[in-house]
Amino acid sequence: MNPLYIIPARGGSKGIPHKNIKPFCGVPLIWLSIDCARDLGADDDHIIVSTDERRIAEVASSSGLPVPYMRPAALGGDNVGSREVILDAMDWADRKGIEYDCVVLLQPTSPLRTADDVYNALALYDPQVDMVVSVCEAASNPYYTCFEQEGPEGYLHISKGDGLYTRRQDCPKVWEYNGAVYVINPDSLRRMPMGAFKRRLPSPMPRERSVDLDTPTDWLVAETLARDLGTCDRYNR
Length: 237
Prior knowledge:
Strand order of the largest sheet: 4-1-5-9-6-10
Radius of gyration: 19 Å
Largest sheet: 6 strands, mixed
Shape: globular
Helix content: 25-40%
Number of strands: 10
Order of helices and strands: EEEHEHHEHEEEEHEH
């Protein structure tokens, strides 16, 4: 398998200003994703940092990774979807003659992801699927704790099933995306949005490593967990 690793890092973060280059475990956050791809054996040509901000590109390149590609400004807004960003990076790689058979999206906002998590997702991938995506067990279960309103009275009814489960552990297991790893079929992505994929496989990760950085509280929790899990050790020697 020959993955193309894409690390999306737009400027203009609102929840955590400058989060992609903010120090995490003592180094810029984006370095953790770069190091993850390198730990998987990727050469520099197969690691693309996709950013519209020159400062992010400079910080990423200070890790030793060349950053020759810059995302077009039109793809820098917070209303731009991941598909458009990935396709533009793929087109750039195609023009450069870089060969790959799948795309691995590594969002910097998942700092507790490990190389093993990516390896496990890659092991599940084959060209017959549209995507392998990292997941964790959902905090809420639509068979048990999720309800919807119906009718003019607005009475609650269970979101899924008949509502007769009396123990959560008896309910069907449900998953939620944790944002850490996406292994994507390039042909599928060119044909349709990721939300239209029919052949998606889950690659489970533990909830304690499924923190996605969106708020300052998320950051505090993630750094605390990183110290406890030893994630910071490689940067604090």
